[in-house]
Every structure is written in structure tokens, then in C-alpha cells.
Amino acid sequence: MPGLLALGLFAAAALVGTASADEPPHFEVPAPAGGGPLMFITLGDTRFTQRQDGVANVFARRALVDRIARENPAAIFIGGDLVFQGSDPSDFEVFKTETAAWAKQKIPVFPSLGNHEFRTCGYEEPQPCLENWWHTFGELRPYRWYSVTVGSTLLALLLDSDSAFKSGSEQRVWFERQIAAAGPGIRFIMVVLHYPPVRDPFYPSMLDEKEVAHYFAKHAASLRERVVVIGSHVHNYERYVRDGVTYLVSGGGGAKPVPAVRMFGEKSKLRTSVNYHFVRFTLESGSLSGTMVRFEAADPSGNSWSEPDHFELRAKD
Fold first, then answer.
1. Which of 108, 174, 176, 181 stands the most exposed, by the fewest C-beta atoms within 10 Å?
2. pLDDT digits (tens, 9 = 90+) for 221-263
């Protein structure tokens, strides 16, 4: 039995195919029964844990979780570092406990793997950490990347930043096949991974995430779909546009904040250095809009919520 969150994880999403087949699983989040916009949420670097030594701001994280529950999205995508220490089962239990409202509301949660999912296991011996991951998200076993169709017009590809993504690698072959096989109704592609391919250059690259940007630099113009790529890892918010692709850094889910210089073409121009947040997406037939929803944990006035950045992607003709 995968556990409590697995019941809420995919309760409102259809599993298309099975993880026992040769392909990673594919899920579907249905469009609203009565038509109209579909709203979903992305966030990253939540670092669920029992630790009280400053690795995460529990107050901010719980506020974000509660606000997301009140918004009642059609789905939630999490860009890695869901927990602080992937080798510790109790961190996943904290995740289940603090997000019980999501499970009760049957909001499907789609996570991607980050570096903290492998903390203390290491990349050479990842199995103990992966077992904790798959115990929580049983429908993903034995895979580390997968896809989701949101409504009828968006294809989400959730990648594993800790696995190879260079040309010819298993994950890259799957990624390119998913894009090539996207149906004619797909107007948007959303890539969710942990290490952001485009970000403030003061933060060095980690593994193969730059390969994502290189791929879209070559192919985005010829694709039928509009593309947005969402990374986390840097505990702040940034937005860029490169080669017609929107790149977000969205790591404000509760982990200890880091500064952002906001140079090199960064679009949001936020003036705040600490930015706990999630991103609310609204999907309509011809558009995908995103709004950064920010929580000010240090605001004594009670006016803690703001929406300081907004962008819109129009489907290609």
C-alpha cells in the first residue's frame, strides 16, 4: 500500500497505462466538467522535515500549504526537494501530515525528484532513498520521470535532474519521444525539473539541466506548442524568456531563502530578497497564464499575501 498521500496523489487523475509496462506512467487531469478555465499550482523546495535548525521555515511552508488548499487547484506540481532528507522516512510522514488537506480534497500531487530526495544516500547508492519515494508515490514505481496531460491542451513532463539527460540517454530519448508524440490538441508543454536550466549565473550548473535549454534553443521555434520550463533548487523566484521559451526559477516553498541578483534579463524585477511563494497557472483553450503568489512571513500587519509577478503565454496559431 503506497500510503495516505498516494490516495490523494492520484485520486482526481486517471492513470493511463501502468508503471509495470516498459514506459514511465502517464496521468491525466481532466478538464472541468462544465468547461471553462483549469487552474493548477506549481511550487518547489518545500523541505518537509521535523528538523528545527533553520533548514526550512515551517510557518511559511504551512501557510503556503493552507493557501493552496483554499485555492483548491485541479493539480499540484512540486519541483523537487519535497523533503529535506530522502533517506529519512519521517520526513515523508511530515509531508503526509502537513498536506492532509490536499489528500482530503483529492487534489492530485505530481512531484519531481530533487537532490534532497537523495540526501545521505548519494547518487551511487540511491535505492534506500528511492524506496522512501516510491513508498509515498507508489504509482511511480519503478520510474524516476513521467508525464501528465492537464486538461486537453497541456502536456507536463516531470524530469529527474539527478539522472542523465544528455543526447542519447534513456531520459532524453523518452523526453524527445513524448514531445514528438504530443497529440494535435496539445498547445502547451510544461517541463518540471529540479535544477533550473536558465537562472542567475552566479549559481553554477549542477548536472545536465543546461541540456534542456540547449534542446529548446534548437527546436522551440519549430514546435507546435508553446513551452514553459519550471525549475527549483535556488530558493527564490526568477523569470526569463530564452528562444521563445519561458523559464521559471520557483524554489520558494519553505526552504531557507537565498538571494537573487536579478540581472541578465530577469523579467520579474522583484525588489524583495525573501520570496516564499507558489505559482498559480490558469489554462484556457488558447492561453496559459501564470501568477506568482507571494507570502510575506515577516509581515506583522497581517497583509501577508501579494501577487507581484504575472505573465501570459498565447498558443501558437
1. 181
2. 999 999 999 999 999 999 999 999 999 999 999 999 998 888 8
Question: Minimal CA–CA distance to 242: which of 273, 271, 272, 219?
Answer: 219
Instruction: Collapse the DSSP code of 219 into the 3-class scheme (helix H, G, I; strand E, B; otherwise coil) and give the result.
Output: helix
φ, ψ at 245 (rounded to 5°)? -110, 135
80 phi and psi angles, rounded to 5 deg: 95, 165
* 271, burial (CB in 10 Å: exposed 0-12, middle 13-18, buried 19+): exposed
Amino acid at 158: L
Longest Cα–Cα distance of the chain, Å, equals 54
All cell numbers assigned to 276: 516564499
Q: What is the mean pLDDT of residues 65-90?
A: 96
User: Model's pTM, two decimal places?
Assistant: 0.93
Kindly report the length of the chain: 317
